[in-house]
Recover the amino acids of this structure.
């Protein structure tokens, strides 16, 4: 498995305030847009009892698990556990894995490694993007997009 790399997860146009399950490197993730329109990506498996977060809903900037309502933000932090009182401390172990996201070339790129931001490789520049005579091809089965000359 090649981690510490940016992976194209989905086309930007398909990401909204409705959670979307995506699979990369054999693992499941959920992507959504928060209230500011920023794309977020966390592991799809809830740290409580393993619910699929993609079956939940977006509440504010968080994604809410459909089973017991735990709320996770885009940094993976659990912000609310409904069964706990408002004054209770949320345990740190409730955190979920979260992944850096960048939107470029009409795609959502997710960094699946653990390098600090300063050490991450850059997303490959595509100088032809949006240039006359070039278009974007999309392979539905592989979710790979590529630029190619038109005509
Ligand atoms: S399984 Fe997600 S909140 Fe319980």
């Amino acid at each position: 498995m090649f981690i510490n790399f940016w992976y194209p997860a989905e086309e930007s146009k398909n990401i909204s305030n409705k959670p979307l399950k995506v699979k990369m490197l054999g693992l499941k993730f959920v992507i959504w847009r928060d209230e500011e329109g920023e794309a977020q990506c966390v592991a799809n498996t809830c740290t409580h009892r393993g619910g699929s977060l993609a079956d939940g809903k977006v509440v504010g900037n968080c994604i809410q698990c459909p089973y017991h309502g735990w709320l996770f933000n885009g940094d993976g932090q659990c912000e609310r556990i409904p069964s706990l009182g408002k004054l209770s401390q949320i345990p740190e172990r409730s955190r979920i894995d979260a992944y850096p996201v960048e939107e470029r070339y009409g795609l959502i790129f997710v960094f699946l490694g653990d390098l600090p931001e300063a050490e991450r490789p850059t997303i490959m520049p595509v100088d032809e993007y949006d240039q006359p005579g070039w278009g974007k091809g999309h392979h539905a089965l592989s979710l790979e997009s590529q630029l190619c000359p038109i005509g």
